[in-house]
């Protein structure tokens, strides 16, 4: 049976575990190398990408995770997870404590892109492949500034890509795990 991991170092891990479990997926929290090695796909939750990068180093998962992504492991990242799945991060943070790109999707993602005035907001977005709009919750969200030729843009907000897919790696700047809408997790699971 296909087993999906949720990177469980920091962030809204429980919500992703719940979303995947609700879809009937065999789901496991990933904190160690052996757990990473045993999954067929990985969700990287929302949270704080600089903190997650730090913990990936502490738990010696940074390079193993990069290697699995380079090897084609399916992945889904929301918000901080989207940032980490980029090949390049703009405004990555203070040198030495910055968020580091893991690769997975050929894109440049800008952290905290929507700025202070609209620190957090919600909106209904058209989403390629879904019949009804997605109610999207953005919390200090990134946006995508550049995508490579092989990257599909699935949704936009304020003109910027906020949902993208390259092969079996999916990323959203917003948090479907928080709204009870399972359609985006389902898209990911169906691609496994
Ligand atoms: N601003 C956060 C970061 O840089 C992301 C916010 C979120 O995941 N809700 O990682």
Could you name the key traits of this structure?
single chain; 192 residues; alpha/beta; Rossmann fold; seven-stranded mixed sheet; binds glutamine; hydrolase
CATH class wording:
Alpha Beta
Main-sheet strand order equals 2-1-3-4-12-11-10
CATH topology: Rossmann fold
| Low-confidence region ranges | none
Catalytic activity: aldehydo-D-ribose 5-phosphate + D-glyceraldehyde 3-phosphate + L-glutamine = pyridoxal 5'-phosphate + L-glutamate + phosphate + 3 H2O + H(+); L-glutamine + H2O = L-glutamate + NH4(+)
Active site: 79, 175, 177
Pathway: Cofactor biosynthesis; pyridoxal 5'-phosphate biosynthesis
Pfam family, one: SNO
Can you walk me through this structure?
The protein has a single domain, classed as Class I glutamine amidotransferase (GATase) domain (Rossmann fold, 3-Layer(aba) Sandwich). The strands form three sheets. Strands 2-1-3-4-12-11-10 form a seven-stranded mixed sheet. The model has no long low-confidence stretch (mean pLDDT 96). It has 192 residues and is α/β, with parallel strands linked by helices. Strand 1, helix 1 and strand 2 form a beta-alpha-beta unit. Bound molecules: glutamine. The site of glutamine has 11 residues, from helix 5. The site of glutamine (GLN) has 11 residues, from helix 5. This is Pyridoxal 5'-phosphate synthase subunit PdxT. Pfam families: SNO. GO terms for molecular function: glutaminase activity; pyridoxal 5'-phosphate synthase (glutamine hydrolysing) activity. Catalyzes the hydrolysis of glutamine to glutamate and ammonia as part of the biosynthesis of pyridoxal 5'-phosphate. The resulting ammonia molecule is channeled to the active site of PdxS.
């Amino acid at each position: 049976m296909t087993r999906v991991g949720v990177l469980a170092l920091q962030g809204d891990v429980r919500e992703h575990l719940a979303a995947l479990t609700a879809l009937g997926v065999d789901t496991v929290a990933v904190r160690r190398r052996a757990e990473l090695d045993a999954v067929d796909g990985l969700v990287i939750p929302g949270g704080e990408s600089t903190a997650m990068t730090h913990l990936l180093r502490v738990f010696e998962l940074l390079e193993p995770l990069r290697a699995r992504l380079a090897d084609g492991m399916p992945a889904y990242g929301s918000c901080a997870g989207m940032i980490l799945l980029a090949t390049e991060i703009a405004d990555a943070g203070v040198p030495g404590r910055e968020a580091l790109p893991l690769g997975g999707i050929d894109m440049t993602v800008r952290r905290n892109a929507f700025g202070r005035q609209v620190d957090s907001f919600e909106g209904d977005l058209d989403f390629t492949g879904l019949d009804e709009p997605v109610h999207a919750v953005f919390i200090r969200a990134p946006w995508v500034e550049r995508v490579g030729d092989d990257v599909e843009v699935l949704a936009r907000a304020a003109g910027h890509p906020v949902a993208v897919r390259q092969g079996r790696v999916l990323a959203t700047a917003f948090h479907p795990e928080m709204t009870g809408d399972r359609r985006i997790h389902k898209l990911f699971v169906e691609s496994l």
